[in-house]
Specification:
The chain is of the alpha+beta class and 272 residues long. It has one domain (3-262): PPM-type phosphatase domain (Phosphatase 2c, domain 1), CATH 3.60.40. Helices cover 28% and strands 26% of the residues. It has helices spanning 60-74, 88-112, 160-166, 214-217, 222-231, 235-248, and strands at residues 3-5, 21-28, 38-43, 48-55, 120-121, 123-129, 132-138, 142-147, 150-153, 197-202, 208-212, 255-262. The strands form two sheets. Strands 1, 3, 4, 5, 6, 7 and 10 form a seven-stranded antiparallel sheet that branches. Strands 2-12-11-8-9 form a five-stranded antiparallel sheet. β3 (38-43) and β4 (48-55) form a beta hairpin. The longest helix is centred in the middle third of the chain and has 25 residues, at 88-112. The two termini are 17 Å apart.
Length: 272
């Protein structure tokens, strides 16, 4: 029905899906972590890409991340009778509703299972609808848009570091000076309800979107991410190179990236 992954994979390279979206994804445990708590999933026919970075003891983090990805993809897995994309506002509402429902189900699973108590996950999602796309997220997993030669960050981290930057307390160019840079202020599953940040963005032919966990953006500077994307035209090569660069810099965390590029016009669909 849809593709999810917890191991290193690049699929399906740069072959455009019938909805005119080429994509590739890679996930890796990194150099220092024994387990990979990142997950990503793709529903190309709906133009939907989802990434989650789990947290929690034992297997709880990977459980939360897996649930988040599968629940959101599942909300969009049934195609409508025709191929016409819904109005952009409806697509945004559907994606936000799916993420909120995933939050509810993760929270309930943690409440029922003592071993999963306190589990949670970030989420970053992209839903491409023709000439517009919905970007939604909770936590510090990110979505970027490459419109060469510019790489634009489309999300704002829900993290303690970012809150202190906005307050003028910390220098945004020196996250390494803040020992609690890994602390996030919002996640799926840690409370009965969650606030989801979502927005609509324009999509032009050739635009490339990057979804990534903090294992990438926390290890590889913005300018290097941009350089790799500009250097590698093939999405699978770019995805592998981004993960390799994070590991070259110590691989302190699980690292995952998903790339999607619009070739021509396309649509999306969903239910929530």
């Amino acid at each position: 029905m849809f593709d999810t992954s917890s191991t290193t994979i690049a699929t399906p390279g740069d072959r455009a899906h019938p909805r005119h979206l080429a994509w590739a994804g890679v996930t890796d445990p990194g150099r220092l972590r024994a387990h990979n708590e990142d997950r990503y999933g793709v529903l190309p026919g709906a133009g939907l890409f989802v990434l989650a970075d789990g947290m929690g003891g034992a297997a709880a983090g990977e459980t939360a991340a897996r649930m988040a990805v599968e629940l959101v993809l599942g909300a969009f897995a049934v195609a409508p009778p025709d191929d016409a994309p819904p109005p952009s506002g409806a697509a945004l509402a559907a994606l936000v509703a799916a993420i909120r429902q995933a939050n509810h189900e993760i929270h309930e699973a943690a409440r029922r299972t003592p071993a999963w108590k306190g589990m949670g996950t970030t989420i970053a999602a992209l839903l491409v609808c023709g000439q517009r796309a919905v970007v939604a997220h909770v936590g510090d997993s990110r979505v970027y848009r490459l419109r060469a030669p510019l790489l634009e960050l489309l999300t704002e981290d829900h993290s303690l570091f970012n809150e202190l930057v906005r307050a003028g307390t910390l220098d945004p160019d020196h996250p390494e000076d803040f020992a609690l840079g890994h602390v996030i202020t919002r996640a799926l599953g840690t409370a009965p309800t969650v606030e989801v940040d979502a927005r609509l963005v324009q999509v032009e032919p050739g635009d490339t979107f990057l979804l990534c966990s903090d294992g990438l953006h926390g290890a590889v500077p913005h300018r290097e991410i941009l350089g790799i994307l500009l250097e590698h035209e093939r999405l699978d090569e770019a995805a592998h190179r981004l993960v390799a660069r994070a590991n070259d810099r110590g691989g302190p965390d699980n690292v995952t990236c998903v790339l999607a590029r619009r070739a021509e016009r396309g649509g999306c669909h969903g239910r929530a």
